[in-house]
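pasting for the record
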Amino acid sequence: MDTSRVSIITDDLHTVDVVRRGHMDDIVRTMLSMGVPLCKAIQMVTLNAARAFDLDKEVGGLAPGRRADINIVAREGEFRVRKVVAGGKVVAEDGVFLHPYKPAAHAPCLLNTARLKHPITPESFRYEVATMGCRTRVFENLRRRKVVGGGAATSPSRR
């Protein structure tokens, strides 16, 4: 199967999941467990994604003149990141960030800029349906897990 146009990216992970399982490395492990060859899995999360966003002249591969962060992993089958090289320096090793940095300082004019007309309460999320007794498609999302299924729900009729 030609996977040269398949890009695997993510923007929907919760921080807790990234800390617990990893980020793109977890996705690569998932693909490996599904039988995707290592080279194809790496290509789908690097070069193919860079090509999809027309960034492959800058990132996505190891070549002169390109920016690249390099993950050094344990074994092919395990795919656990042991070291991360960025900007030519080892920046992380065995899950520890080696170059602490100071929190960014922001000018006071950039802080507290959102002004809400009304405070946010549970009622802020209430949605009134004009037509009662109709069916609609819904997604089930149980306790911050991924969407596990879909179905239909009937809104209650007013009495």
